[in-house]
Design goal:
- The chain has 87 residues and is an alpha+beta fold.
- The chain has a single domain, classed as Alpha-Beta Plaits.
- It has two helices and four strands, in the order E-H-E-E-H-E.
- Strands 2-3-1-4 form a four-stranded antiparallel sheet, covered by helices on one side.
- Strand 2 and strand 3 form a beta hairpin.
- Helix 1 packs across helix 2.
- The relative contact order is 0.29.
- The structure holds copper (II) ion.
Length: 87
């Protein structure tokens, strides 16, 4: 299980963009998104855990990896661009 906090994911458009990006990388992956908590959980048997933050970043969002049960750390850098028109 890979868990990310994605602060710039703010609506269902954002979550569908991220879901599509994940499915494009691994059609068999399971994606669980909680928009109000800005959480993305990805389960995949084939893609190494370290690659998912890049997948989310390339979709235009700013993921912060979360250890199980831990609080998200502050993002290392400001977002390159806003992920969505609604932000
Ligand atoms: Cu949005």
């Amino acid at each position: 299980m890979n868990t990310f906090e994605v602060k710039d994911m703010t609506c269902s458009h954002c979550s569908s963009t991220i879901t599509k990006a994940v499915k494009a990388r691994d059609p068999g992956a399971t994606v669980q998104i909680d928009i109000s908590a800005h959480r993305v959980q990805i389960e995949s048997d084939t893609v190494p855990a370290g690659q998912w933050s890049d997948v989310i970043r390339q979709a235009g969002y700013t993921p912060v990896a979360i250890q199980d049960g831990a609080q998200a750390a502050a993002p290392a850098a400001a977002p390159v661009r806003k992920g969505c028109c609604c932000g």
